[in-house]
Request: fold
Amino acid sequence: MSALAVFAQTCPQRMSAEEVGRNIGSALHAGLAITQGDVSQADIQRERLKLGAQAIMQAWRDLDVLEIREETEVLTRLQNVERTISARKRPALA
Reply:
């Protein structure tokens, strides 16, 4: 199962951009605390890491959607240019 499919199953609600940033920051702090040996709040640290991972997956998916939209827009523009060029090349009917 792809990471995006797992994300869709585990995080059905979208986060706001503010929540994404906050959760990623919180996950970074949790990861730093864990690497420094602070496991006094391990359950909270794990939850923060989980939310951070979900935020990253949402951002990844959103970027993928934007990339697809941009590609579609570029292809549409190219097709319009091709149609315009073809129309100009056709001889006028008398």
